Amino acid sequence: xxxxxxxxxxxxxxxxxxxxxxxxxxxxxxxxxxxxxxxxxxxxxxxxxxxxxxxxxxxxxxxxxxxxxxxxxxxxxxxxxxxxxxxxxxxxxxxxxxxxxxxxxxxxxxxxxxxxx
Length: 117
Prior knowledge:
Number of domains: 1
CATH topology: Alpha-Beta Plaits
Helix content: 25-40%
Strand content: 25-35%
Radius of gyration: 15 Å
Strand order of the largest sheet: 2-3-1-4
Shape: globular
């Protein structure tokens, strides 16, 4: 069964084009190293909840948008192998220096598939 890394992060609206450029490069790197798919989405209907919500989860500021993304792998072992190659890739190291998002407010994790139809 497949495995997914999921991410939620805040990106300044004014830097969305910069983020898109970085995400495009990241998608190429992850797929070159074996990821099955890579997706990035910009929130446009993410209400601010009373207790929990995407905006609350990343302490979203007025001038930011929520990005929701995931990377799909064959299984956890495949994910670990792909990520080891990605983290050693110089393109990723360079990207991290110019990241327009606040990584301290990013939420991420690995997920085993419960249902995929």
